[in-house]
Amino acid sequence: MDIFQVRDRLPDSIDPVVLVIGKFDGVHKGHQHLLARAKSFCRPDEKLAVVCFTPHPLWALKRNPAYQRSITPDMEKFRWLAHFGVDKVYNVAFTEKYAETSAETFIRDHLDGLNLSHIVVGESFNFGKGRDSDVDLLMDLCGERSVPVTEIPFLRDGANHKVSSTDIRTALYEGDFEKAENLLGHPYFIEGNVRVENGCYLITKLEDFVLPKVARYQVLKDKKQMEIQVLASGEIEIPLRIKRVRIQFDTIQ
């Protein structure tokens, strides 16, 4: 999968693409549904591409602490997007300056260099300055280039609730990994470097990850179970010495 770090205009490409636009935090079941539908529009010579944004706009603009951390920080997000069939990712640095981009500039300028065959977005999609532009305007602007736009309805659970990153964040914080994994459609992983302090082995620099509340939890490393401790410092104490570790939170606690 090709990854492009973008500040405004996306790099030119002659490859025909079906483009999906969204935040994709968690790459959860709703996102997977969106990607699968988009993939169904791809002809044999077309690639599936995603435009996503980092950091979360609610953190970048409003400093909402609930969105400072990500369910899937960039590298984890890219890992899952590749797993679910994405060929190209355009990861836009979302800043206060970028938030001033109008809907017209986004479509006519920022996406102008792409060879678009189709654009796919989720239900109630908004974009542009103030998020005051909707799918109808997106269709009008893309119509100038004869690019079709498809709006995909939310994926909902058995209780008719849409699958949302907000619910996943809450489940992760509460240590309800079974619910989180059910909404994500994949296990929840955390990865980081390990340092030694006073004989303890600590996963550090986890500022980008949504962490469960302070407590002991069962996790899997290389399919083997072990117990870890989430600390008030935002670090995780583990029972083994290793330079870097990737752990999966176990749904059976």
TrEMBL record:
Cross-referenced SUPFAM superfamilies: Nucleotidylyl transferase
Catalyzed reactions per annotation: FMN + ATP + H(+) = FAD + diphosphate
Enzyme class: transferase
InterPro entries: Cyt_trans-like, FAD_synthase, Riboflavin_kinase, Rossmann-like_a/b/a_fold
Annotated GO biological process: FAD biosynthetic process; FMN biosynthetic process; riboflavin biosynthetic process
GO MF terms held by the record: ATP binding; FMN adenylyltransferase activity; riboflavin kinase activity
Pfam family of the protein (one): FAD_syn
EC number: 2.7.7.2
Domain FAD synthetase: 16-166
Pathway: Cofactor biosynthesis; FAD biosynthesis; FAD from FMN: step 1/1
Stretches that traverse the bilayer: none
Keywords, ordered alphabetically: ATP-binding, FAD, Flavoprotein, FMN, Kinase, Nucleotide-binding, Nucleotidyltransferase, Transferase
Family: Belongs to the RibF family.
Protein name (record): FAD synthase
Organism, as annotated: Listeria rocourtiae
